[in-house]
Amino acid sequence: DIQMTQSPASLSASVGDRVTITCRASQSISIYLNWYQQKPGKAPKLLIYAASSLQSGVPSRFSGSGSGTDFTLSISSLQPEDFAAYYCQHSYSPPYSFGQGTKVEIK
Amino acid sequence: QVQLVESGGGVVQPGRSLRLSCAASGFTFGSFAMHWVRQAPGKGLVWVAIISYDGNNKYYPDSVKGRFTISRDNSKNTLYLQMSSLKADDTAVYYCARDAGGVQYMDSWGQGTLVTVSA
C-alpha cells in the first residue's frame, strides 16, 4: 500500500502570507495526487486534482505542483477564509490513502 | 446541482451491524464511481471504499476488508455501506463522495453521518 506523508502537521501564518504544504508518497504515483480543504464541522472540498489542476470555482491563489513522489500545495496570499485543514490524497491505485493533514492557523 | 445526503448513522454496540445510505441527486448517478470516507472525532480523513459505476468492482483498505461492504442501487440513485462486526475504532463521521473519473478524485461530498460504536 502507498503511504502519504504530509508536512508540516500544523503551521501558523498571517493574512497575506505565502504558504506551502508538502506531501510525499512512499512510491511513485505519477500525477495521481489530489488536495482537499476542510473547515471545522464541514465536509472536505476539492481544491486541486491531478497534482496541478485547479478545481472549478477554486480561487487562483491556490496552486499545486509535483509528480512522482513529491508534491506541494501553495497558497500565494493567505486569506481569512483559508484557515482550515488541508489533506493530500493519492488516487494511483486502491487503497486511496490520505495524508495525515495540515492545519493552517492564524498567527 | 449535485447533492449527496447520507443517513443511517447512530449509536451501535460493538460487534453489531449498521447500514449507511447515501441518496444522490442532480447528476446521472449510474455513470459515476462512488467512495466512502470516514473521519474519527478530531482525526484525519480515512478512505474506506470505492465502487465502480456499475457495481462490478469494489475495493477496500485492510482495516475494513471483510467487515464492510459497499454496494449501490442505480435504479434508486443510492449508495450503501454495510458495516458489520463494528469496533470502537469505527466511530467516525462517514462521508460519501462522487468520483469524478479520470485520475479518480472526489469532486462532491455529502455532509456526513455520525456512527458511534459504544456499549
Overall description:
The complex is a heterodimer of chains A (107) and B (119). Chain A has strands at residues 4-7, 10-13, 19-25, 33-38, 45-49, 53-54, 62-67, 70-75, 85-90, 102-106. Chain A is mainly beta and 107 residues long. In chain A, the strands form two sheets. In chain A, strands 2-10-9-4-5-6 form a six-stranded mixed sheet, with no helix packed on it. In chain A, strand 4 (33-38) and strand 5 (45-49) form a beta hairpin. Chain B is mostly beta strands and 119 residues long. In chain B, strands 2, 4, 5, 6, 9, 10 and 11 form a seven-stranded mixed sheet that branches. A four-stranded antiparallel sheet of chain B has the order 1-3-8-7, with no helix packed on it. The termini of chain B are far apart. The A-B interface holds A 1, 31-32, 34, 36, 38, 43-46, 49-50, 55, 85, 87, 89, 91, 94-101 and B 35, 37, 44-47, 50, 59-62, 95, 97, 100, 102-107, 109-112.
**Overall average residue pLDDT of chain B:** 97
Oligomer designation:
heterodimer
- N to C succession of SSEs of chain A: EEEEEEEEEE
Helicity range of chain A: under 10%
| Computed CA radius of gyration of chain A, to the nearest angstrom | 13 Å
Shape of chain A: globular
Largest sheet of chain B: 7 strands, mixed
